[in-house]
Amino acid sequence: MMSVSRSLTFLWTPWSAIASILVVLATAGFCFVAWRRSGYRRVFGLLELLRFALVCTAAVMLNQPEWIEEYRPEDKPSIVVLWDASPSMDTRDVLQADKPGSTAFSRREAIEALTKDASWARLQDRMKVVIQPFSAEKAGRGSDLSDPLLHAPDKIPNLLGVVFVSDGDWNEGPPPVEAASRLRMKGVPVFSIPVGSSTRLPDIELLSLDAPTFGVGGKSVRVPFTIESSLPRDYTTSVTLRASDGDEVVKEVRVAAMGRTSDFVMWKPKATGDYTLALTVPKHSDEVLADNNKLSAPIAIREEKLKVLVVESYPRWEYRYLRNALSRDPGVELSCLLFHPGLPKVGGGNKDYIKQFPTGLDELSKYDVVFLGDVGLDDGQMTAEQCRLLKGLVEHQASGLVFMPGWEGRQFSLLGTELGDLCPVVLDPAQPGGWGSRTPSHFELTELGRRSLLTKLADTQDDNAEVWEGLPGFQWYAPVLRAKAGSDVLCVHKDASNEFGRLPLLATRTFGAGKVLFMGTDGAWRWRKGVEDKYHYRFWGQVVRWMAYQRNMAKGESMRLYYVPDQPKMNQTLTLHANVMERSGEPLHNGEVSARITAPSGKTDVVRLASAGDEWGMFSGTFAAEEPGTHKVTLFCKQTGATLEATFYVQGVAAERIGRPARPEVMEEIARVTRGKVIAANKIDDVVQSLASLPDPPPSVRRVQLWSHPALAAVMVALMSVFWVGRKLIGLV
Question: Which residues of 559-576 are buried (b: 16+ CB within 10 A; e: fewer)?
């Protein structure tokens, strides 16, 4: 409700008042004389009266009259208390100044009294106090300090002042100083109450736990993690990985001071099923914050039969031991093809062998990984069409391809086909037979190779490096010049080099949806010396599973679904790929495929997958998750009626991380811009006193300047027109 008062005021000066009076008196005398001279005729009297009215109006306007209306609210003025409810307020870094050795409590606990009505009871008689939280906790979202300040005057009528309680940590929206500038223009001061320590307290934070989407029963799973420390010294601790079935793995980790430490835990599941892995870092004796020392992630363990095809010319030693390693792997279903150039029939003798290269897409698309040995483009070996199909298998169906050249140099002929684009290295055409020596040569791991899962032959990096240094050497290697752009080099020749640097012997790259590996020697079978299959079997088993991982995320009888990245984060673009087959087994052409994605909250989105490779039945689409947690996916094909159920886990992005330092300078700037004050959180009386001393808000005033109003000017012009027309009618003009 508003009370309204109206008044007429003049902005006159003594000179304007005297001049107005003299002009009015002189005009009155002149008008009377003119009327008397006319013999007091009525019409003359009316004209002179009109002249006198015009002059009086002009004299009044000379003193600038204004019509003023004042609107005063009858309700009490309002004070709004805005307090930060974001996750960063759970940081325990508030210490009691009078108790140096006391336990720190959270920022939320430090401001708890300010969020209660009782703290503002003394203002209730004169003011209306509104208490509102902002930036309430929502996974993946941060703090927006600008929005609550900007909209406070619109939401709270008759706003007199703002009490702003926060740690100053903002990571969404425009800078809060922009909202503070608008409040200053409206005359609304902000009393800032910063909370939290501006320097980071001693803390150990578990930043990430990147468990893979699925694992294979009976095979160890590598679970990477990252720890961030703000402690001034390195220290050694034991992290614990607990599975939902009660299994535990403990690993000793050296945590670097004032930085990040990345490591991993190897966990071997006992049975198939869905698990939840939880990693815990024990609290350090100097650590103040222990709330961020634990993370968890889901993982599915299932039995897998990976289909592998090995294509070779002659049964060299590398082929024989590779075949033994894969055929004895319970998770691999092996097919071998020996061309035996020069002989009328292909080689083979047991159930692992096939008589010819797979014909048609329906047969070839069954294979997860293909090994190409010392074979080439020749009669009785590979054809250009088969090379094209292999490229499509990798690019569109996420299969893996391994190049394993030999001293015959037959793979050089493949480089002129479409497979040439897939090879991770550039070979020297001047030396097709490669290089051999009487003395054994050795591998040397690159920095990337020390961290790769493929080259992990021992549980720790130090032990792994020692194993690679002690591996038996090789006496032949491929004529490699350099790695192609975009390739990852895991191992190089320990001694040989050229103008491009050390010669790469083990390199990988991603091509389309699949992966490619180049093995530049034929001496991996020698790794069995003295240890049997310990390292040789482990290496090739890791290669097969690494290459087939993405392809086997989710598959049914006629559908396969995989996505990139396999560990998506909130608001990160997730690319969905689907391979869809006809009932006959042929890839689907020009079909309609959709993915129905259900978030943990129940919200449903439908993603239409567009054809990305008709010949291979590949369909692709994108999706950005707005919620963390497990999302359910139902893949549906309209033409075949087939469906596929799958899930993927979205990691919550910690936009508001616990343990970050407070930013009191932001709060100070808001108070300074609005001409308010910065007051400590434990001084509620000072806040109340400052609010009580605020003057009542000025009334809303509406001023109408009559002396310059267009309507008055129109009236004056109209009256002057009537005056001159009248004079003409009576014959004075």
Answer: bbbbbeebbbbbeeebeb
